[in-house]
Amino acid sequence: MRVELLALLLLLPAIGVFIYAAIHEYRRYKSEGSATYGLVYDEETGTTHVTGIAEGEESFDPSDFDYGGQDAPEDGDEDDTVQKDPP
For residue 86, is it within any domain? Predict the structure, then answer.
């Protein structure tokens, strides 16, 4: 098998997904108009994802978020996951 054909076969699925996404977004744009996309923070899982943002809603700004308090123990509780060596 020629190298060029092998490279094309490897890239074909990615090209197909890109073309499908472009057609899907174009059809959505024609039916709904312009959309605003941005990061949205999910408090339950502690993750962010890109999605459409409704009018009047603000997107998640990572520079405004304090990551320091996420893993800190509450009210002076010790972290039980760290095992200490016996004396």
Answer: no
